[in-house]
């Protein structure tokens, strides 16, 4: 396993496992399968509704809590100091743990400054080991980090071969914040799994398109959290440490970048209205 050292010296596995859209009644089984494969970093969120399943699986695994790195995120409906503070306690109970390894503001809408203050408080109290944000564009990220005491350790944003976040990465590196990818396979958009270049490179290494895509992100210093409910796919996504892409291969994959989102443009008014509807 590779690790990234965050800006407060906490070490985070560079390859983790996401449970976005994992059915609540399947989460425990899925996470237990992932643990058996070798994953130790798990990413959930309040809005996913499956924090409890993650916590149950970790307890049932029989492994010590210290072996795991758990991430969760505070949703918009819990934005603001008081609501966020209460939601952190609820997440701890659902996860059945005394501390969360990484806690993120899930979306850059609502009173995320108040949310962040509650997160800083939890960090100082030892309930959280690292704090950060998710889906923050460079301008919102820069504004936030200028006015907080504890600088964001992570910005989890859409990152894949078609949207490599080159501009965002430049500013995250400047402010010593680690980039983390959600949607490393672009959720199959643009016929992702049939991308000719990734297939060609994969054939040279005896690897799949998914493995090449993940390896590209690892070598680009990105933290990744692929997801699957199938154990064989979990294993495939985990088997990316026994090969390395050449410099030429990396450069050719970089040319796949389209420079724009395939999902939500967080700077568009329609996106803000859609996410802020969760407050009503």
Tell me the major beta sheet. 8 strands, parallel
Order of helices and strands: EEEHEHEHEHEHEHEHHEHHH
What fold name stands as the CATH topology? Answer: TIM Barrel
Low-confidence stretches: none
- The H-level CATH homologous superfamily, spelled out, is NADP-dependent oxidoreductase domain
The tally of helices reads 11
The strands making up the biggest β-sheet line up spatially as 3-4-5-6-7-8-9-10
Regarding CATH, which class?
Answer: Alpha Beta
Class per helix and strand makeup: alpha/beta
Using the alpha-carbon principal axes, give the shape.
globular
Would you report the number of β strands?
10
| Second CATH tier, the architecture | Alpha-Beta Barrel
Mean pLDDT: 97
Q: Estimate nothing, just give the exact number of structural domains.
A: 1
What is the rounded Rg?
A: 18 Å
Beta content comes to: 5-15%
Distance between the termini: 43 Å
Proportion in helices: 40-55%
Active site: 48 (proton donor)
Enzyme class: oxidoreductase
Pfam families: Aldo_ket_red
Family: Belongs to the aldo/keto reductase family.
Characteristic terms for this protein:
280 residues; alpha/beta; TIM Barrel; 8-stranded parallel sheet; two-stranded antiparallel ribbon
Break the fold down into its secondary structure elements and pairings.
Elements lengths: L2 E3 L5 E3 L3 E2 L8 H11 L3 E3 L7 H10 L8 E6 L6 H15 L6 E4 L6 H13 L6 E4 L3 H9 L7 E5 L7 H9 L3 E5 L13 H10 L3 H11 L3 E2 L6 H8 L8 H8 L14 H8 L4
Parallel strand pairs: 3-4, 4-5, 5-6, 6-7, 7-8, 8-9, 9-10
Antiparallel strand pairs: 1-2
Helix pairs in contact: 1-2, 1-9, 2-3, 3-4, 7-8
InterPro entries: AKR, Aldo/ket_reductase_CS, NAD(P)_OxRdtase_dom_sf, NADP_OxRdtase_dom
Protein name: Glyoxal reductase
Keywords: NADP, Oxidoreductase
């Amino acid at each position: 396993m590779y690790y990234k050292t965050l800006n407060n010296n906490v070490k985070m596995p560079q390859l983790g496992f996401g449970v976005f859209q994992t059915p609540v009644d399947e989460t425990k089984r899925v996470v237990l399968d992932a643990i058996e494969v070798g994953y130790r970093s798990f990413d959930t969120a309040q809005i996913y509704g499956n924090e409890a399943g993650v916590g149950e699986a970790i307890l049932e695994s029989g492994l010590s809590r210290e072996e795991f790195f758990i991430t969760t995120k505070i949703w918009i409906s819990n934005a603001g100091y008081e609501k966020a503070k209460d939601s952190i306690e609820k997440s701890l109970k659902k996860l059945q743990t005394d501390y969360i390894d990484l806690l993120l503001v899930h979306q850059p809408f609502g009173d995320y400054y108040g949310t962040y203050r509650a997160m800083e408080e939890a960090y100082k109290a030892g309930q959280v080991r690292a704090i950060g944000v998710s889906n923050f564009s460079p301008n919102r990220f820069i504004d936030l980090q200028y006015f907080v005491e504890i600088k964001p350790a992570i910005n989890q944003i859409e990152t894949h071969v078609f949207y490599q976040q080159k501009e965002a990465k430049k500013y995250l590196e400047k402010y010593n914040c680690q980039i983390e990818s959600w949607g490393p396979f672009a959720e199959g958009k643009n016929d992702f799994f049939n991308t000719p270049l990734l297939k060609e490179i994969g054939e040279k290494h005896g690897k799949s398109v998914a493995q090449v895509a993940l390896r590209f992100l690892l070598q680009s210093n990105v933290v990744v959290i692929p997801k699957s409910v199938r154990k064989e796919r979990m294993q495939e996504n985990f088997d990316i440490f026994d090969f390395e892409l050449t410099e030429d291969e990396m450069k050719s994959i970089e040319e796949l970048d389209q420079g724009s989102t395939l999902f939500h443009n967080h700077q568009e008014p329609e996106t803000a209205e859609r996410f802020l509807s969760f407050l009503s």
